[in-house]
Amino acid sequence: MTSADLPSLEALPNPRGAAVREAEAALLEARHACEARMAVVGPLLRAAQALRQAGWLASQRFTDALVLASPFANGDFLVQFEAALADFHAALARRNLRELACSPTLFSHYCELNAQVARHTQAYAVALEDLALAGRPIAPAVMRAHSGPAHAGLRARYEQALLPVLKGHDDGGAALDTLDACVAELAGDDAYDVWRLARACARTLRLNGRSQAGDPDAKRFYARCNLLLAEQGHGQQYAPRSFVRAALALLWRDYALYGAAAEDADAVALLNDYGLTVDWHVAGTQSSEAAWEQEAAQAESAGASGAATRELGVLSVNVYAYEDFLQTADASMAALTVGADAAFASATPDAAAAEHAAQAAYRLGAAAQALGLGHVSLLADALGLAWRRHAYAARVASPQSAPQRKPIEQAGEALRAMLLRVAAGVAPPDSAVPLALLTQAIERTPGAAGTIQAA
Predict the structure, then answer these.
(1) CATH code for 305-446?
(2) What is the distance between the alpha carbons of residues 335 and 153, in angstroms, rounded to a whole number?
């Protein structure tokens, strides 16, 4: 099934990416069972297990939502359930992990599935970041202290402009200009200043037209910014993790789906600061999509013959993509080792060496994601973020802000062991333990680093 069959899906397929055949077969079985009005929980659970083993955490989470909603797949909801199952099955066959995490189509289905469950159980809400950032650590973002009268005046201007935006009034364009001006005024130069992140997010929402169109996510973003202003006025030094996650997911979504161009360099650098990477291309023309689809069909045909694939646990990988990945991984790990050794050679953080290590880890993470090695990709990206934080600590002369050495070294060793298994043709192990330790080191907010200069 191609994107031509389901034009609602957003990104282009990844013809050289790995397939989780067991999950695809289980979802097909679930679709047939649903059409026959038979139980679908069994095949859905098998799909979730295979996706967990592959490290496709966003897809596993979507499958879990299908499992929870399946008892209510009858009556009017049956049509919605079948559509969600069909679109998810089609997206999984496209093997684009970024689309599986960031697709607005899949997220819309995810919301419908969870809303149906909530009608029969205790109510709860879901958000885009629940899928897009599944399993990813979130670096803490800071808020500069502002003087009382100036901050109060800015917040008054913000609240006055917020109301017409939330209500969708005709003068919403001018109000959006005011909101964005306020956010820009608040933004500082610190790499982890939360208003710098908010400014980039607001710019992206304007460029893609979501804020002008009254998109619910855009309205929620601007409303959250108002709450953030209140917390900053009360002296809060770190932004709520929930706000950072939401803003990052909105900022990353379009870049993850469609890639980035040269003019997006600042936004991409900011995403790198928070452990997220993108491809440097924009595939938006019909001719480029047609060429990509043709290559995807050829790759799928070659894979079906069994002559050009290799099995890594639940993953079926293209042999040529697999060999290319091993070369990339070897070079990246060598660069990562050099950077890590140099960064830890002195008592104080070395910004250049840490940045070198971060970029090497990000290259490895991006290559692993393209191949479909979910566990490797998550751990490599998290390690890249840890080194990015290490470089930041060196630049601001705050050694206590750097993640601790031990979890970084443990993550590097675990990553090397995973790659050795991949090179031997064996499925890499689950990255949960080293990832959890690294996440704890990244997300901590050191008290000594919390001293923030007044604006």
Answers:
(1) 1.20.120.160
(2) 50
Cβ count near 169 (within 10 Å): 12
Q: Give the sign of the dihedral formed by CA 296, CA 50, CA 27, CA 29.
A: positive
- The label of the residue with tokens 């059409």 reads 35
Cα atoms found within 13 Å of the Cα of residue 142, Cβ hemisphere only: 23
The per-residue pLDDT for range 17-30, each reduced to its tens digit, is 999 999 999 999 99
Q: What are the extents of the domains in the chain?
A: 19-132, 148-273, 305-446
Helices (H) and strands (E) in the chain, counts: 19, 3
φ, ψ for residue 374, nearest 5 deg:
-60, -45
d(CA 211, CA 203): 9
Predicted model pTM: 0.90
Edge-to-edge strand ranges of the sheet holding 19-20:
19-20, 315-318, 309-312
Q: Are 182 and 157 in contact (CB under 8 A)?
A: yes
Tell me if 22 sits within 8 A of 50, measured CB to CB. Answer: yes
